[in-house]
Design a protein that fits this description.
Helix content: under 10%
Shape: elongated
Number of domains: 1
Number of helices: 2
Largest sheet: 10 strands, antiparallel
Structural class: mainly beta
Distance between the termini: 34 Å
Amino acid sequence: MRRFLVIPTVLTLLVAPVQPVNAQSLASQLEELLLFGDCGGRLCLLLDPLNNHAEHYTADAAAAGDLVIGFLQGAIGLSLGNLPFASANSGTLLTVQDGNLVQTQVSGGPFYAERALTLGKGRFFLSANVSGVSLSEVRGVPTDEMVFTFTHEDDNTVFGDRDVENDLINVNMTLDVSVVAASFMAAYGVSDRVDLAVQIPVVRASLDASSQGFVDENTPGSGNHRFFDTSGSVSSVSRVTGSKTGIGDIGVRLKANVYSSDNFELGLLGDARLPTGSEDDFLGSGGTAVRALGLVSGRIGTFAPHLNTGIARVGGLAPRTSFLSA
C-alpha cells in the first residue's frame, strides 16, 4: 500500500527592491533619535559664549538613553520571539485502496499547534509560511505617543539648586517597527515514531522613527538652554528610516510519538530557536528560545481535537519563562 503526503501550502518569498549596502545597523539608527546637534553626544545643546551649557544633559541622556534604547530593543526582540514555528504535519495523509485515494486522517491539524502523529520513517514534509509583526505598544503605551524626560546635571558649586537646573528636556518619540518573516521548514521521519525538523526564516525588518526634543524652561528671564542649530531653538527634530533583510533565528525541532491507538495519540515535542539572526538589525531576538510540549490528539467520529501544553524559555535582552497551552 503506497502513501502520499499532500501539503496544502503556498511557497511565498520575500520580494524586496535592491538597496545599497548600509553598514549602519537599525539599532544604531534608533540611538540617533536622542542625538540633537553635532557635538557628538546625546541631547547636544548650543554652547553659550559665557557659560558652557552644551553638555548639561548628556550625562542623564547617556545613562537613561542606554536604558531607553535597550528597553526598546528588548521589546522588539520579544516580538520576534513570538513569531510562530509552523506545524510540521498540518497536511493530509492519503492512502491508495483499491485504486482510489482515501484520506486516512480526519483533521488536517492546526497550523501553529502540533498533532501527536508523526510522519513515519523515511517520509519528509516541506512547507513555507509568512508571518508579520508590527510593534504598536510598549507596555501599554502606543509607540506614537512615547515621551521621555531628561534632567539637568547637578551643579555642586553652590548651595541648593540653581534656577537653570530646573530646566527639563522632553523628547516625544514616534516609533514604527515592522517585521515580515518568510519561514521555510523541512521535516523528516527519522523513524516511525520520531520526526526531526529544521526551520529557516528570511526576515525583513523596517524602521521609521522620529523624535522631537523640547526644552521645558523653568528658569526666570532669558533661557540658557538651546539646541545646537542655526536658530538656537528650544526644539529640535530627528528622524531615521531604514530596513534590513537577512536570515533570522534558525529553529530545530524533535517530536516523538509515545503512544498510538485508533482514536488516541500521545506525543512529546521539543524545539529551540538559535540566535542566528542579527539582533542589532532586528532580524533575531538575541537569545536562545526553547520549548517543551506534551501533545494529545484524539478522534471522536468526525471530531478530532488536539491539545498542546508545556513551557517555554526565551533568552536575550528580555528573558522570560511562560506556560503554553493550545
